[in-house]
From TrEMBL:
The keyword DNA repair does not apply. The lineage of its organism: Bacteria, Bacillati, Bacillota, Bacilli, Bacillales. This is Flagellar motor switch protein FliM. Belongs to the FliM family. Signal peptide: none annotated. InterPro entries: CheC-like_sf, Flag_FliM, FliN-like_C, SpoA-like_sf. The keyword Membrane applies. Keywords: Bacterial flagellum, Cell membrane, Cell projection, Chemotaxis, Cilium, Flagellar rotation, Flagellum, Membrane. It is a peripheral membrane protein. It comes from the Bacteria. It is found in: Bacterial flagellum basal body; Cell membrane. Residues 254-324 form the Flagellar motor switch protein FliN-like C-terminal domain. It comes from Robertmurraya beringensis.
Amino acid sequence: MSGEVLSQSEIDALLSAISTGEMDADELKKEQSEKKVRVYDFKRALRFSKDQIRSLTRIHENFARLLTTYFSAQLRTYVQISVASADQIPYEEFIRSIPKMTILNVFEVPPLEGRILMEVNPNIAYAMLDRLMGGRGSSINKVENLTEIETKIMSNTFEKSFENLQEAWSTISEIDPYLAAFEVNPQFLQMVSPNETVVVISLNTVIGETTGMINICIPHVVLEPIIPKLSVHYWMQTEKKEREPQEIAQLEKRIQTATVPISAELGHSEISIQDFLMLDIGDVIELNQAIDGALTIKVGDIPKFLAQPGKVNKKLAVQVLETLKGGDDDGE
């Protein structure tokens, strides 16, 4: 006799089937014992967890904001860039998904190994080029007939834009990206093997009235050394950094020599707007402070001391009488 233990749902289903006469016990148990097979495509191996993909998405959302600022300044027109999706797919599938002729910027990212690909839709690339050359930002797709001048302008623009990736990635790795190659035909570009898993971050891009996509293709070999830093545990952990004694001493020295404003408040008064508008030269405003009362000394805007007025060497001065306790909270 088999020692298999049925779950509660299996027991409920069995009792229900027996009571209604739809199925006998042996037939139902045979159904439950059938193996469930799930199809797995070894060509589409998932090497990144959902958690890691979400971390990459957050990083490149920051990259998209930096690109928006950069291109808005360079093109002097409305630019909006945002993350549309982030997926892990085989490199071969990514190459098939982009246009046959497009703008391909290949970047080295030392000290990490491998290269990152930045694919820019031709409509977007030519709108940028037109703006840089003084035009209105119209798009003409003639990527297969790029001149040397157009190629140079485009490559310089995208190389400088990719420097923003250094800031976006600073939380997980210190990289120094630079443009290694500029290509227009994906078939001539073989960064990794066709079945290699890559992460593709698609950026929805709007430049004036032109829209298109910018795709960032990151092979697994690039991310492999920093994969542990993409986990939630890494982002949530708090490391307490111990300050060096020299650093503390230097900080104290700077604080001691810092300049702060000190003021003696003779008093204050409240009047109506109508009375304020009627003020004239020679009018007297009565303060709420008694003539023999202590003055409030403020450091910045915070009351700190009580003092009495006087003179030192024919100059107005105040003599501190006492320190106000809780002065940090009495800011009014």
